[in-house]
């Protein structure tokens, strides 16, 4: 019946054979068998064209919805057997990561219709809490991460690191800055950041060995930016800040000696669920396609 429906759509034995990955002779054989069963021709054939007979039209109209229903049912059962059905809770920690999660979720829903994706924001001040408490299944977050109970998946994004300063700051007119410049500043930062990530984001010392004065002053990113804009210090951020957090008295200056901040997937334990694995595979595909 599937062969009949494809032929009724293509109206060409060769194209039907190509779609079904079988020979043209096999398509003709199955069509004749069905016509013998019906007791009448379903197609009008000539050397130049193939058309449906009135009975062929009737059969296609009546069979197609039921055939699609069978295919949908098989897809749902297969999805359930693979463990990709149900709710997948995904976290993100920045606007760039959030937009990526949204795009990946759209593709995931198309590929696995029974997988319902729920999205929520996580905060640097409680980086792993929602994941460890079972409130999330997977999150797209800043790296590095080295936690014994958590597994780090593939790196999906990279964003250049920048120094955020007030518009009246001595460095505001610079086109680039270096880590050495931090030795002369009060570097304010978020409270509660994991030590490994904090030290990777904002080095404790410059390359020449001078200490960097770092102060954890707030748990809220917007409040941190307000303090920087008011001249209460500087902070290390990423380039997306200029897009998502522009302020009239805030300047973002690229570092010329710090690599980009990386973002990767993170989940509990060592055995990812089928839904988490599916999300990770789709995420790799989507991000690879976007990065060319």
TrEMBL record:
<protein>
    <submittedName>
        <fullName>LysR family transcriptional regulator</fullName>
    </submittedName>
</protein>
<dbReference type="Pfam" id="PF00126">
    <property type="entry name" value="HTH_1"/>
</dbReference>
<feature type="domain" description="HTH lysR-type">
    <location>
        <begin position="1"/>
        <end position="53"/>
    </location>
</feature>
<keyword id="KW-0804">Transcription</keyword>
<dbReference type="GO" id="GO:0032993">
    <property type="term" value="C:protein-DNA complex"/>
</dbReference>
<keyword id="KW-0238">DNA-binding</keyword>
<dbReference type="GO" id="GO:0003677">
    <property type="term" value="F:DNA binding"/>
</dbReference>
<comment type="similarity">
    <text>Belongs to the LysR transcriptional regulatory family.</text>
</comment>
<dbReference type="Pfam" id="PF03466">
    <property type="entry name" value="LysR_substrate"/>
</dbReference>
<dbReference type="InterPro" id="IPR005119">
    <property type="entry name" value="LysR_subst-bd"/>
</dbReference>
<dbReference type="InterPro" id="IPR036388">
    <property type="entry name" value="WH-like_DNA-bd_sf"/>
</dbReference>
<dbReference type="InterPro" id="IPR036390">
    <property type="entry name" value="WH_DNA-bd_sf"/>
</dbReference>
<keyword id="KW-0805">Transcription regulation</keyword>
<dbReference type="GO" id="GO:0003700">
    <property type="term" value="F:DNA-binding transcription factor activity"/>
</dbReference>
<dbReference type="InterPro" id="IPR000847">
    <property type="entry name" value="LysR_HTH_N"/>
</dbReference>
């Amino acid at each position: 019946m599937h062969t009949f429906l494809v032929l009724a759509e293509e109206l060409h034995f060769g194209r039907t054979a190509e779609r079904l990955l079988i020979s043209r002779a096999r398509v003709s054989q199955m069509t004749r068998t069905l016509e013998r069963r019906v007791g009448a021709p379903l197609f009008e054939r000539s050397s130049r064209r193939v058309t449906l007979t009135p009975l062929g039209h009737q059969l296609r109209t009546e069979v197609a919805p039921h055939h699609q229903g069978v295919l949908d049912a098989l897809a749902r059962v297969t999805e359930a057997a693979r463990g990709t059905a149900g709710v997948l809770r995904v976290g993100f920690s920045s606007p760039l990561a959030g937009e990526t999660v949204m795009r990946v979720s759209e593709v995931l829903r198309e590929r696995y219709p029974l997988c319902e994706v729920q999205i929520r924001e996580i905060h640097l001040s409680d980086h792993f809490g929602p994941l460890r408490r079972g409130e999330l299944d997977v999150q797209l977050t800043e790296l590095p991460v080295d936690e014994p109970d958590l597994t780090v998946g593939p790196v999906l994004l990279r964003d250049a690191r920048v120094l955020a300063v007030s518009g009246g700051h001595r460095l505001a007119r610079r086109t680039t800055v270096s880590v050495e410049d931090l030795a002369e500043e009060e570097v304010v930062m978020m409270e509660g950041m994991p030590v490994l990530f904090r030290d990777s984001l904002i080095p404790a010392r410059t390359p020449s060995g001078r200490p960097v004065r770092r102060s954890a002053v707030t748990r809220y990113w917007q409040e941190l930016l307000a303090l920087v804009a008011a001249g209460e210090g500087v902070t290390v951020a990423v380039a997306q800040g200029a897009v998502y957090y522009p302020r009239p008295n805030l300047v973002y200056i690229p570092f010329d000696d710090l690599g980009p901040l990386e973002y990767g997937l993170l989940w509990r334990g060592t055995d990812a669920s089928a839904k988490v694995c599916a999300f990770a595979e789709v995420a790799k595909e989507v991000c690879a396609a976007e990065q060319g």
